[in-house]
Structure prediction request, 340 residues.
Amino acid sequence: MSHHLDTPQAAQNGQLFIDDLYIFDGTDSTVLVMDVNSNITGVYAEPGFHPEARYEFKLHRDGAAHEDLTYRFSFGFADADGTQTMQLHALTGADAVGDDSVGELVLEGRTGIAAERNGIRAWAGRAEDSFYIDLSLLAKVNAAVADGTAIDLSDWDPAAAQNSFTGTTVNSIVLEIPHTDASLRPGTRVGVWCATKLATDAGGWRQINRGGFPMMWPIFWPTDTDFTNPANTRHPSEDVAAEASHLAGHVAAVVKATGTTDDAEGYGITVAGQLLPDVLPYVIGTPASFGFATRNGRTLADNAPEVMLSLVAGTAIPSGLKPEVAVKQRSSRFPYVIPA
Prediction:
């Protein structure tokens, strides 16, 4: 299939758009979840996973600037029943960074069915979306970030908040690695991000979208529906040089207009330093929490929007929603998501 990646329309595909990334402690295990292809995008959502794409979990261990462990999922074309073959390869060391190495085949299976080998488990398929936010609140913050104005919450009533994602579904990829695995022993510090990549006509691969911290794209690049922002194709090691001053400036303008600090520029720099590089930190084997006190991984229940919106505003932004609003969209057992 020809993709003609020189045009934005070629990449405009919900199958390649990353919605959320999670990493948390399972039962004597580490769990990674990548959500793509939300049907809240309407016409952009297509059935299944892209059969000519790679879906990768990238892990930087012990503060390294580049990943030395990559878990790569790939899928076949859909059968008549809509299911797809699934393969998981692991790449380590220098092989984890580039696209040329095949890596080690860890397990094989089909979408919608749990696969397990040597203690590693994987599941991929359509699932109920556990993410929750009232998008009308996000719109208020988006307007302020875009225009450098104060966040106007004068007509925002948290008690009346509604979850805009009720009833929505995503394509989830769930990977569970046991604590006995030599790559991810308890106590290991990791930085995690994920990426979607698409095969090119020239025989290589192009990174289409990536994700680390939650809400980065909705807050700072909300109109990037065509994957045209260069942040999509960058490696996180380039984030500070490429984006820190720009992101800091947007945050500084918002908090200055809102009046939440006497040193708006300093606050903007601090926030940029916390969010870049766009890699989610986690200590293996510890309770995950993406909250105000700490950002250590992220569970399916965490109220990430409230944390991120408040961080950008420099003051509390009450979302009005609690984890209970999506309690039926997650599970404490593998695959942790609820198949749709």
